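USER: Study each token:
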Amino acid sequence: MLIKKSDDIPSSEITPKTSYMNRRTLLIGTAAGAIALTARSSAGWFQPTPVLADGTQLSNLTKSAYSTNEAATPRELVTTYNNFYEFGGSKADPARNAGKFQTSPWSVSVEGEVAKPRTFTMDEILKLAPLEERIHRHRCVEGWSIVVPWIGYSFNVLAKAVQPTSRARYVAFQTYYDPKQMPLARSTGLPFPYLEGLRLDEAMHPLALLCVGMYGKALPNQDGAPVRMVIPWKYGFKSVKSVVKIRFVADQPPTTWNAANSREYGFYANVNPEVDDPRYSQASEMRLTGSLFGKRIKTLMFNGYDQVASLYAGMDLHRYY
């Protein structure tokens, strides 16, 4: 099945009307959750680690109810077979080339349509909420998948801290880019810095994870240190790494892969076994195992995360891919 897309549809018509009618209820629920998390942290539920160097052990983690019960992919595979195009186009390049990437000090600017724009240090990010371990499935466009125990908390906690205004409809993410530290980025042919985006209600969904670690430790450089997003119901390229800027905006923001190849990469990028990529079938996937590739399994709609289905009620997901 070929992907269909109409270029003449205004971005304002892409989002279902019901999503915005329910926005106030969504934000109220988010605020309540953030208040509860703040109360937990003030009660001493966790002790954040102020410096997240590669390999730092993260302690006092809570187990998330959003976790799958599947066995995790071996850490050595997830840290040596992955995409991070700032460090090269091969899946082995990030582990080979990111070792000297400087991630301290680090800050994340949050701006745009918010009442309280601010710049967060990593220490401040760690203090916003207790850290959870979430074991999530991930599906790559190329047809392989992994299961990873990530560490972080729902992105909506950070969003509540800056208070999105009524004009905020999308969230735009920008990665760190330094040609001196990332000389191989030029060889990929992509424009940098890497850009990604979500609709506001997607970003506010509790499954959208602001991530600072994996496998019990701080993120390694090649997997997006020191802070990244994890969006488990979307294809892997949406889970943007090494975030330095977040903007709440009124209009659908540009995204790197959509700009580079809109026929293949859409804005939404929800895992959908019924819509094939021009180069790859999405009906099934090969799970990475200790021997790299294991058995082929059926791909699930939204990667099996049915909790997000209501976000797309009434949308043609063949058209808005």
Q: What stands out?
A: The first strand starts at residue 62 and ends at 63. The two ends are 13 Å apart (CA to CA). Residues 1-50 have pLDDT under 50 and may be disordered. DSSP finds eight helices and 13 strands in the chain.
